[in-house]
Amino acid sequence: MDAYQKYFFDVNGYLVIENALTSDELGALNKALDENADRIQIRPAEQSLAAGSPALVAKHGRGDLSGMLMWPKPWCQPFRDLLLHDSTTPVLLELLRDAFRIDHVYGIITDEGAEGHVLHGGGTTDDLTHFYEFHHGKMRCGLTVVGRNLTDVNPGDGGFACIPGSHQAHYPTPPDVARLETDIGMVKQISAPAGSAVIFTEALTHGTLPWKGAQQRRSILYKYSPGPIASCERAVPADLGERLEEFTPQQQDLLRPPYSPRRFSLIEDTEG
Fold first, then answer.
1. Which CATH superfamily is 3-271 part of?
2. CB under 8 Å to 238, separation ≥6 — which residues?
3. Side by side, which strands form the sheet with 144-149?
4. Is there a cis peptide before residue 90, judged by omega within 30 degrees of 0?
5. How far apart are CA 21 and CA 25, in angstroms?
6. Element spanning 42, H or E
7. What local confidence, expressed as pLDDT, does residue 257 receive?
8. What's the 3-state SS for 150-207?
9. What is the pLDDT of residues 145-174, one digit of tens each?
10. What angle, 0 to 180 degrees and rounded to 10, lies between the N-to-C axes of helices 3-12 and 89-96?
């Protein structure tokens, strides 16, 4: 993580890394999604994320996808390969320190007309798993997200949006601003081409704008925590069991439940 990236993340709470996937990696991931499209679950009205906001309600609910790490081979492999990736691991080491863990993984796969998600998170949250701090010259984060864009996200398409800098806010987001019913000029849609990684702290106020793009939105979210912390109730995939041996030693370390003393060093594993 270079000096420009550190400064940008500290000020804004997010970072975009373009070309974070090769064309072959991007193709393999999209092929896997094409072959498993029947697994996408469209949220029904009773599970709406729009909080009734006219600015966020749209034609249909968001498309959710889960369990990619445990799909049958070969479709699981492209997603497993992203658990520790050269394009993003240096950033995670800077934000979470060594021995971080994967908390949970899911996908947002939506077509034109999908609803948005009310803004949530922010620097004033009492959730001890979602935090941003700066101590002794280092950034320190709780739950941190690496979102992978598998299709282009153009200006005006919708999708991921945030209030830059809100991870350090001292006041809560006004509810009508969080529902996008009042525009005070602070919400920013983050556009980035296919193959990009959007990294952000969950302490950032963020959400989703209704999807207006003609192309399908395909975003895969990998959420990481410091080694002793869990945000998701289930620390590892429910059906991991004996299949843990299918993962590399480094990936197995990532999948271990949260605990503090002497977790495995991802740096030492890499150097070894």
1. q2cbj1_9rhob like domain (2.60.120.620)
2. none
3. 14-17, 197-201, 144-149, 217-225, 101-110, 63-66, 41-42
4. no
5. 6
6. strand 41-42
7. 84
8. CCCECCCCCEEEECCCHHHCCCCCCHHHHCCCCCCCCCEECCECCCCEEEEECCCCEE
9. 999 999 999 999 999 999 999 999 999 999
10. 60
Question: What DSSP assignment string belongs to 133-146?
Answer: EEETTEEEESSEEE
Tokens of 11: 């000020």
Quick one: residue 190, left, alpha or beta (phi over 0 = left, psi -120 to 50 = alpha)?
A: beta
Q: What is the pLDDT of residues 49-103, one digit of tens each?
A: 999 999 999 999 999 999 999 999 999 999 999 999 999 999 999 999 988 999 9
Place of tokens 């690496």: 146
Q: What is the predicted pLDDT for the residue at 260?
A: 65
CB 98 within 8 A of CB 260: no
